[in-house]
Design a protein that fits this description.
The protein is mainly α and 188 residues long. 48% of the residues lie in helices and 2% in strands. The chain has six helices and two strands. It has a two-stranded parallel sheet. It starts with a helix and ends in an 18-residue tail after the last helix.
Length: 188
């Protein structure tokens, strides 16, 4: 899977996270939340760095291994409570959103077809790799292969598959007008 679907999840989560926030400074908070949740949504793919250190694809620390697991998502969510306390965000809401966005990466990768070895969802309790029974997302080429026709087709398919999340994330918000106090002398 290319990262466009994961980023769509992060952007939609950022918008949902900031929904109902006070209007003052909302655009800045919305943009920050979208960027941070988008980064979080792709962070499990940091495991591709392991290729440069001789870690094989199918190893527990290989691609779609430990960083794609439920355990890793929960640990990132728990860690986010420290950030929430430091930034005065609601701890439970932050941990829930962070955990779900981090978990979404591994779950979405189980829905890919056309390559790969599955996802180690139950690491460290099991090194088995899993696939979803519903596999509808084409797997993306790794590295420079993304610049090929296949890579472009994968990106295009992800834009279509994740269109509802993209639309939710970028659709303009309706600005609620605040009531102003009536004036003593209303205009005629």
């Amino acid at each position: 899977m290319a990262s466009f679907g994961h980023i769509a999840v992060g952007m939609a989560a950022g918008r949902a996270f900031t929904a109902g926030a006070p209007h003052t400074g909302r655009e800045g908070r919305l943009a920050s939340a979208m960027v941070l949740f988008s980064i979080l949504s792709v962070w499990p793919d940091v495991d591709v760095v392991g290729f440069h250190f001789g870690i094989a694809y199918g190893d527990p620390l290989g691609h779609r291994g430990a960083t794609h697991s439920i355990t890793a998502a929960v640990l990132v969510g728990i860690t986010s409570t420290l950030l929430a306390a430091w930034t005065r965000l609601p701890a439970v809401k932050t941990a829930l959103y962070v955990t779900l966005v981090a978990l979404s990466h591994g779950l979405l990768d189980t829905c890919t077809f056309g390559g790969g070895r599955g996802v180690e969802l139950l690491w460290p309790f099991s090194y088995d790799r899993f696939w979803s029974p519903l596999r509808f997302i084409p797997v993306a080429p790794i590295g420079l292969g993304m610049l090929s026709l296949t890579g472009l087709l994968v990106v295009g398919s992800e834009v279509v598959i994740f269109a509802p999340l993209w639309l939710y994330a970028i659709w303009p918000r309706r600005v609620r007008r605040t009531q102003t106090a009536p004036t003593e002398n209303p205009p005629p």
